[in-house]
Amino acid sequence: MGRVGRALIWHELLERTRDRWVVVVSLLFALLASGVGLYGRGAEAEVAKLTGPSLVTLASLLVPLVALVLSHDAIVGERERNTLGLLLSLPVGRFEVVFAKLVGRSLALVAAVGLGLGAAFLVSDPGEASALLALIGPTLLLGLAFLSLGLLISTLMSRQVTAASVVVVVWFCLVFFYDLGVLGLLVATDGGLSQQTVSALVFGNPAGLYRIEMMNAFAGPDALRELGIAADLPGDGASAMLWGLWLLVPAGISGILLARRKVV
């Protein structure tokens, strides 16, 4: 990456850390995470074991929102301000622009996730430290997947307000309504869907994949077996491939679209 690309990464990081919406959602995540940690520390031993799963639920709701807020204006914001043509007139390729924006905003996402989980780590019981540390990697993968998806939405939209509306709809659909849709499909087919189909639908959503992996890590395979999905859990290689696809495919499509699209 050239000098312009590196400067763009730094610029994106600084601009995102000043975004009031990103700051508000990040502080909300940190406040709620620290509340979960304090509750687990002061609760009885059996209740304290819920700290990890509670943080998983909280992260699966707020981290995608932070990521989408971070990325929704990456390209369309430049276009609407009439600065995209100026940016691309510099000695920097269009794929390099997409990559720089992805990396710069990913660093801001790392800071937001670190703030939230770090707050929970500081106030939680020392015995839960290893469990909370295990959350960092998967939670970052979840955020990066939604960041890449938000970048694609930003590339497709022609107005920033439209992109903001679309990412809110995507957040609701993937985080809240997706699992209800799978459940409704099972009810509509009277349980006729195969286990492989149900698993593919669940793992095809990054939020669902994150929840299942973390449920397996905290509750063990027995809890998943009661839900009827333990036999179909992806292995480490398949899981890494799924996360890689969610991270690279939307960003790659964004680069292709930007390379083919005329800048006006």
Give structural notes.
The chain has about 260 residues and is an all-alpha fold. The protein has one domain. It has 14 helices and no strands. Helix 7 runs antiparallel to helix 9. The chain is globular. The two termini are about 25 Å apart. The model has no long low-confidence stretch (mean pLDDT about 85).
Report the average pLDDT across residues.
83
* Unreliable parts: none
Question: What is the CA-based Rg, rounded?
Answer: 20 Å
Strand content: under 5%
- The total count of helices amounts to 14
How many domains? 1
Fraction of residues in helix: over 70%
Describe the structure concisely for a colleague.
The chain is mostly helical and 264 residues long. 81% of the residues lie in helices and 0% in strands.
